[in-house]
Amino acid sequence: YSLLGSLRAVAQTISYEVSLALVLLSFIFLVGGFSLELFSLYQSKIWFIMISLPLALVWLASCLAETNRTPFDFAEGESELVSGFNTEYSSGGFALIFMAEYASILFMSMLFSLLFLGGNLLSVFFSLKLMI
Q1: Contact 118, 48 (CB under 8 A)
Q2: Alpha-carbon distance 44 to 31, whole Å?
Q3: Domain count, the chain
Q4: Between 123 and 64, where is the model more confident?
Q5: Exposure check for the chain: N or C terminus, fewer CB within 10 A?
Q6: Is 35's pLDDT higher than 90?
């Protein structure tokens, strides 16, 4: 079961990273650099989510797929009633895998906030935007 789950997880990760890269590349062309400070400066007047709502929806769907959330949790086959690639893990390894998955969710939320909601790392409301 863990081999099937890992094959599903790798296929899903590769397929949805293409759309994430294309959305990120379009914003890099728009801003003209890789710096997150540039993203923050360009969004001081209007957020990018107002300009590019379809890209935000593609990014959100791809983030859900990358973090293996509910509609995209193919690696965990409910028909087999197992937990996918982490079937053979227990205790410490199992806890580390789940902590890494939730850290990935926080990181993707931070990127969404920085790219679309004008998140400044020094802003008071950055953590509130991150929770949305």
Answers
A1: yes
A2: 13
A3: 1
A4: 64
A5: C
A6: no
CA distances from 122 to 12, 40, 61, 118, 119 (A): 34, 10, 27, 11, 9
Q: Which of 81, 108, 88 is nearest to 13 (CA)?
A: 108
Enter the pTM of the model: 0.73
For residue 25, the model assigns a pLDDT of 92
Among 96, 132, 97, 99, which Cα is nearest to 114's?
132
Q: What is the mean pLDDT of the chain?
A: 78
Residue showing tokens 């995209």: 72
Per-residue DSSP letter, 67: T
Q: Which residue type, as a one-letter code, is found at position 87?
A: T
User: Using 50, 70 and 90 to split pLDDT, how confident is the model at 30?
Assistant: confident
Q: Say yes or no to pLDDT of 54 above 90.
A: yes
- Which amino acid is located at 70 in the chain? T
User: Cβ contacts of residue 47 below 8 Å, gap of 6+?
Assistant: 116, 117, 118
Amino acid at 102: Y
Residue ranges making up the domain that contains 50: 2-131
Pick from 13-27, 79-93, 110-124: least confident: 79-93
Among residues 108, 111, 120, 125, the alpha carbon closest in space to that of 38 is found at 120
